[in-house]
Amino acid sequence: MEKDTMTARLILNLNGETKGYVLWNDTEAYYEKLRSAYKDISDNKKNDYLYFSFFTLCAATLEYSLNFLLTDFCLNHYGHENYKAYAEGYINLPFAKKLLMTPTIISNGRYTFNTKTATYKTLCELITLRNKILHNKEFLKTFDTPPMTLENNQESVNFEILKEPNHIDRLNKLSCLNYGKALGQFKNMVMDLAIAHDLTENEIIVKIAN
Q1: Rounded distance, CA 204 to CA 181, Å?
Q2: Which tens digit of pLDDT belongs to each residue from 147-179?
Q3: How far apart are CA 143 and CA 85, in angstroms?
Q4: What separation in angstroms does the CA of 97 have from each of 9, 30, 46, 61, 195?
Q5: Neighbours of 99 (CB within 10 A)
C-alpha cells in the first residue's frame, strides 16, 4: 500500500529541550484531488455537482495555499515563539487582497503579481465568484408594472418579471478548466518556488521597481 507523503517545516531545539515543532504542508492533498476532478471534467464526466465541487475545491485550495505561504514566512521571519500573531494578521486579510499581497509579503517587498496576466485575472474572478456563490443573499428587487387601481374593476393585469441568472449557473466545463489551469500556474510559479525559498520573476511574477 502506497503511503501518503507531505512536506513540513521542522524546528528542533539543540539546547537540551525535549520538544520540537512541525508546520505541516498538506496542500498537496488538495491539489491531488483537483487533478482528479480536472480529469473528470476534461473527460466530459458531467453531473449536477461536479462543476460546483471542483470550483469550491479550487477556491479552498488557493486560500489554503496562501495561508500556508504566509504562515511559513512568518515562522521563518519571526521565529516559532512570535510568528502566530503576525500569521493570523495576514491570514485574516480579505481573500482578494491576500492573493495580491502574498508574493510581496513573502519576498520582503521584492516581487509582486503581474496583475495584467490572464492567470492573475482568472484567480481574482475565482475569488469574486466564490464569494457570490458561497455568500449569496436575496433582497427585494423592484420591477415595472402597469398602473393599477381598485376603481377600474380590473380582473387581471399583465406584466413581466425578468430574473437575473443564478451565480452558480455560470459554472461550466470551460470556466472550471480555466480556473484549474490558473491554479496550476499559481502552484508552479508561486507556491512551489516560495516553499523552496526560490521565488523569482516568471510569467506571472514581476520584480518591484525601486
Answers
A1: 13
A2: 766 566 666 667 677 777 788 888 999 999 999
A3: 49
A4: 26, 22, 33, 16, 21
A5: 22
